[in-house]
Design goal:
Layout lengths: L2 H4 L1 E4 L3 H12 L4 E4 L20 E2 L3 H6 L1 E3 L5 H6 L2 H10 L4 E4 L3 E4 L5 H13 L3 E3 L4 E6 L4 E6 L4 E3 L2 E4 L14 H8 L8 E3 L3 E3 L11 E11 L2 E12 L3 E3 L1 H10 L8 E6 L6 H14 L15 H11 L12 H12 L1 E8 L7 E3 L20 E3 L7 E2 L4 H16 L8
Parallel strand pairs: 1-2, 1-11, 2-7, 11-20
Antiparallel strand pairs: 3-6, 4-21, 5-6, 8-9, 9-10, 12-19, 13-16, 13-18, 14-15, 14-17, 15-16, 17-18
Helix pairs in contact: 2-6, 2-12, 9-11
Length: 419
């Protein structure tokens, strides 16, 4: 067997690609890593606001609760290389980590570049050839198995194994422009509908503009479509000039694409989740007693952030000039209900240029979950965001990349007849 056929080519130098190249090289394969950008890990530099939330330290069960699409497909990959193994790998290669709120794991330095540097050290030590500014045009096969890759300039790199780790469509400025989907489709793979996920939402309500910049902490949010509840969560959200954003909303957005039917999608926010309706009514009554001779519009400062008061007055239908002691019991109850059931209507998600990840991708039905190898083309593997796998925020999506990348890299060194 000649050396060329024995080598593995990894397309894409992001999280999944670097890990795939590392695992393949560590297991004795000669590896070429192709990256079309000027450096490796370009998208990692913007994850977690540049701090790079590398994984989540939670246990296995909780980890899988945070996987939105095709969690079962991920079982083998996560077993082969879980969050603990990733932490060990990074520490062993000089990137020290710390754990923050919600078990999110970051480099101690708060610099994403330390993560990429750890991989670069490992790849160099294990003899991986890294070729930057190298864009792949198409994959080459003999009809049954992979034989190599053809670069943009027409040159061919022969390879008996190719791992496609080209990412999705989110943040196209980092090079995620759907190349892998095109390559997969050209070889007969089904690519499911790709949609922006972990992304802000545009709202129908005009009054959102008035609340721009307002952050709400410790609120609960339910997203529903008709009678079906799509998502429920607790945490922080932010109003913007077009709608809503923040961690809670990003998580909810991943379920927006899972809705069936055409009924409107409604967000229901509980502004005071710690209080029951009865407790809230007592609280409002107490505030009203203290302000009984003031106008209604001047008596709400203890209940809501100042930016929100005009919207609450408008939506409650209570005359802002009315004296507090003239507010009827029904009106007070209406205010309490509005506080517990503050509704808004989703118009649309924002686009891929703002989305943290892509939902959809190469159909996992055509990929072997225990090796990441294509079921259609021998020697072809997929890893990371190019697959139809996605999760909520908190380091879970990067762990999908590390786990699938590792399994693809390790598997490509174990093809039958070659052990």
């Amino acid at each position: 067997m000649n050396m060329d056929k024995n080598q593995a080519v990894v397309i894409g130098g992001g999280a999944a690609g670097m890990m795939a190249a590392a695992a393949a090289a560590e297991n004795g394969r000669s590896v070429i890593l192709l990256e079309k950008n000027e450096k490796l890990g370009k998208k990692l530099y913007i994850t977690g606001k540049g701090r790079c939330n590398v994984t989540n330290a939670c246990g296995r069960d909780k980890f899988f609760e945070n996987i939105v699409s095709n969690p079962k497909f991920l079982y083998s990959a996560f077993s082969a290389f879980d969050n603990k193994r990733l932490e060990m790998f990074l520490k062993d290669n000089g990137c020290h980590l710390k754990e923050e709120r919600g078990e999110r794991v970051f480099p101690v330095s708060d610099h994403a570049s330390d993560v990429t540097a750890a991989f670069e050290r490992f790849l160099k030590k294990n003899g991986v050839q890294v070729r930057l500014h190298s864009k792949v045009r198409e994959l080459e096969t003999d009809g049954e198995k992979i034989t190599g890759v053809i670069l943009e300039d027409g040159s061919v790199i022969p390879a008996g194994r190719v791992i496609v780790a080209t990412g999705g469509l989110s943040y196209p400025g980092t090079g995620s422009t759907g190349d892998g989907y095109r390559m997969a489709q050209a070889l007969g793979h089904k690519v499911t509908d790709c949609m922006p996920a972990l992304v802000s939402l545009e709202m129908e309500e005009e009054w959102c503009k008035k609340l721009q910049g307002l952050s709400l902490k410790n609120v609960s949010l339910i997203m529903s479509c008709g009678k079906k509840k799509l998502y429920e969560g607790f945490g922080e959200m932010l109003f913007t000039h077009y709608g809503v954003s923040g961690p809670l909303v990003l998580s909810a957005s991943s379920f927006y694409g899972k809705r069936k039917g055409t009924e409107p999608v409604v967000l229901t926010i509980d502004l005071k989740p710690a209080l029951s309706e009865e407790q809230l009514d007592k609280r409002i009554l107490r505030d009203f007693e203290e302000n009984r001779n003031r106008q209604f519009k001047n008596a709400l400062g203890g209940l809501y952030p100042s930016k929100m008061i005009s919207v609450m007055i408008e939506r409650s239908g209570i005359d802002p000039e009315k004296k507090v002691h003239e507010v009827t019991k029904q009106e007070r109850r209406r205010l309490a209900e509005l506080t517990k059931v503050f509704t808004m209507h989703v118009r649309e998600r924002r686009g891929f240029d703002e989305a943290v990840i892509t939902q959809g991708g190469v159909s996992v039905k055509e990929v072997n979950p225990s090796t990441m190898e294509s079921k259609l083309v021998r020697g072809l593997y997929f890893a990371g965001e190019v697959l139809d796998l996605d999760a909520l925020t908190g380091g879970f999506n990067l762990q999908i990349a590390w786990s699938t990348g590792y399994l693809a890299g390790k598997s490509c060194t174990e093809m039958e007849g070659e052990k």
